[in-house]
Amino acid sequence: MKKKETVLVAIILLLVLIGTIVLDAALPSYHIAIKVVKKATVYSLVAVSMNLLNGFTGLFSLGQAGFMLLGAYSYAVLCIPVAKRAGVYQQYNGGIVQFSLPEIFSNLFGQTVGTTVGMLLALLFGGLLAAVFAYLIGLPVLRLKSDYLAIATLGFAEILRAFFQWRALGPITNGSNLLKNYPDFSHATSYIILGGLLIAVIVLLVHSTYGRAFIAIRDDEIAAEAMGINLAHHKRLAFVISSFFAGVGGGMLAMYMGAVQALSFKSAMTYEILLIVVIGGIGSITGSILTSFLYIASVEWLLRGLDSGKFLGISAPAIFKNGFRMAVVSVIIMVVVLFFRKGIMGDRELPDLIRRRAKRGGGAS
Amino acid sequence: MSENLLKAENLTMQFGGVVAVDNLSLEVNVGEIVALIGPNGAGKTTAFNAITGVYEPTNGRVTFDGQVIVCNHPQGRMKRSYKGECAETYVHERVLNPTPDQITKRGMARTFQNIRLWKSQTVFDNVLIAKHMLSTSNVLTATFRLNRREEEKQRSEVLDLLKLVGLDDVRDELATNLPYGRQRRLEIARALATNPKLLLLDEPAAGMNPQETLELAEFIRSIRSELGLTVFMIEHHMDMVMRISDRIYVLDFGKLIAQGIPSEIQANPRVIDAYLGVSDDA
Amino acid sequence: MQGLIPYIIAGISAGGQYALIAIGYTLVYGILRLINFAHGDVFMVAGLVMVYTTSTLPMAIAIPLVLISTSLLGFVIERAAYKPLRTAPRMSLMISAIGVSYLIQNLAFYLTGGLPQSVRKPIPWISDPITIFGASTKRVTVITPVLTVLLVVGLVSLIQRTRIGMAMRAAAKDFQTAQLMGIKINSVISFTFVIGSFLAAVGSMLYFTNYPTVSITSGGMPGLKAFVAAVFGGIGSIPGAVVGAFLIGLSEELIKGAGYSTFSDAFTFALLILVLCVKPTGIFGEKVTDKV
Lengths: 365, 282, 292
Prior knowledge:
The complex is a heterotrimer of chains A (365), B (282) and C (292). Chain A has 365 residues and is an all-alpha fold. Chain A has one domain. Chain A has helices at 3-26, 32-56, 64-79, 82-88, 101-109, 111-141, 146-164, 170-173, 188-206, 209-219, 221-226, 231-257, 267-280, 285-300, 324-339, 350-355, and strands at 179-180, 259-260, 310-311, 314-315. In chain B, strand 1 and strand 2 form a beta hairpin. The model of chain B has no long low-confidence stretch (mean pLDDT 91). Chain B is 36% helix and 23% strand. Chain B is of the alpha/beta class. A six-stranded mixed beta sheet of chain B has the order 6-7-8-3-9-10, with helices on both faces. A four-stranded antiparallel beta sheet of chain B has the order 2-1-4-5, covered by helices on one side. Chain B folds into two domains: 1-107 and 196-282, Rossmann fold (3-Layer(aba) Sandwich), CATH 3.40.50.300; 115-195, no CATH class. The chains are: A mainly alpha (365), B alpha/beta (282), C mainly alpha (292). Chains in contact: A-B, A-C, B-C. At the A-C interface, helix 7, helix 13 and helix 15 of A face helix 4, helix 9 and helix 11 of C.
């Protein structure tokens, strides 16, 4: 990126950050706008992680929900305060995990710093756990052709979900019951900073030599292999890294939702993220972020009227009833898939928008 | 004669019941330009693929730079249905079926019959990506830009290569926007980026007019001397083949029917019969 | 053993229903290399249509109406959502299928208010209770495998002996060449979807006679399992899909009988992954090598 573009991107990001801080100060934390920002940030992270795998490396994986599940549960299990555990794990005698990371670190570093450190470490653990599973799953599965890979990863996600609902693992997972009462970041700014940093790492990866190798595998893996890129190793790398970020994203989602259960992490969640990625543009990180925000803002907030009788001043309770919102969203999705095949952004990124012309490289970036 | 760089022995490729490459043995020595010619469907690209690890040979052995890199013998179901020769020769040898990237890392790089450039990437990036295998950085050091010096070195090497093939004026163009002949040059530049000792070219002049073919021929000759390369190519443009090859192998229906220097091949009646035809060629 | 009989019967019945859905998947995949994610939802819509038509119209009209409307739905989906993307990369097509599935589920949710719909007037005769091998069940569980086998035999004859069947086989082998050889590929594809949807409709009526509640997600799991059956048997192979379906139906029910019902779904997926890793082309599938 040239100097001018770097500066403009930095300004935009700064404005976003300032905007969020203002929002946090002006509105109570239960306000819909704050919730939208939080949820959209989490979805952005997961969407970008999926884009890394599906969009940049060309590996059609539908296992995202499974990795998010691992991250979400890791976070919840590690962060429920000890005193609350008996109340949560009612059927399992308080569960076998009798410590919580935020509390451990609070003793070391004091309340605010300690809790934050504990929460972040729990998120990190979630990511690493997801990465380990991705490595193991990837060994047999990454050799498969695209549609088979999709179904196999989908299958693994469903198998994981079944295990998490299993009574026998109840002492850790609380079986089919909710895990709740764990701490959350009350400010949207924390989400933005954390999500932003993680997405920035992915951006750095994509523009590095490894990112280029991933793209080469997507564009023509036979040529990539002929040019010395080991396919198995690099596919596994992309899979593991993508799953790491999906795991952390899952942990952040748990934070946002306040209570988690395995049932929420069905394949429908993966499809949602996939649709966001496709509409944003496969291979465009900016697209994934923008679409996440657009999607969450629309579904959770702006289009709520479509479900409750009144929308844009038009009052039509017979049409605008429960479910109309999602029906409308589904139609819009189909329109984009059929008529805007490249998605909103195609494969362009923010700097390309600033430059205001179609992507043509742009020198040594 | 200079020392041997590539040696294929008793190379046989059988697909189902069809023997595509039949007991092919050939040699390429350091500094040579060797050509593999023959009618379409003779098995030339299949032989290339067997040598570069894209296919596992049904039988045979490939030695590169003094080391055995590929070795296989008929196994399992193929044992019964094998129609080729020398079925017992390599039975006691260690089976080696490396992946193409492992072979490229040994110093053998190739281009493809149908151009396989990375379409979403620029000319520059297409060549830069080929440098990835030479990186000493891992994913973490690369992501957090701790490999800056290495990356800059690679970028300047890429620029030099682009200047060598005459493509530095279009380095920021998308690879697909280039005219056909320049795309072929780009594929060669990309292969060169891997610092190979041996360059395998699969029909590098395909689709080129006589002028372009001539330029390409001289270009191949120049990179042989300037970069100290050895070249092994499949080609149908006989003027180019006769012009720059040191030696030629002729394949027909998978079998080697002739080998020798250009003048010998041109005069060989079997070759004329199967492939060249009489008087003027393309 | 006596205790297992109800599960075995249920398993065979489920297998038959899965088989009817699985055929739709395998036919479409054979020609278009597309996993029709929306197929399970077509199955669910057929169930919804059945609920509405059987409670408001005479049976003799209701049943054909279900068959016709479902076949029409399959036809429309193909024309609207898949045909335009025929030249697009495979991922786009699959995403379109997911999008259609999403759309159908959300539309169904909107139109039904999200409440599961119960069959108020079950189809007579097949829903009558009977006793077999000492276990009491509905007649439909016996009818299903018989009907399935009959339909499959009919379908295989159609594919092996008629011209349209030959066209389907040609398109499955090599799509582009079939087109170049003058086969009206659009008709063949539409026909394939119509058959698949027709069979799904039959399967749906049998399934929802047995489990008389249709919820929006009713198509999800049976659909996915039917797909696993198709992959297991060898995608593109009809007998394979049928064998796979019965196997899955039986194993599922037996697992439930053994007390591990949480895992009956997971078992199906474990089977899928096993097949994909060990023999991806399935039991009856063929190996294909790529040319470089």
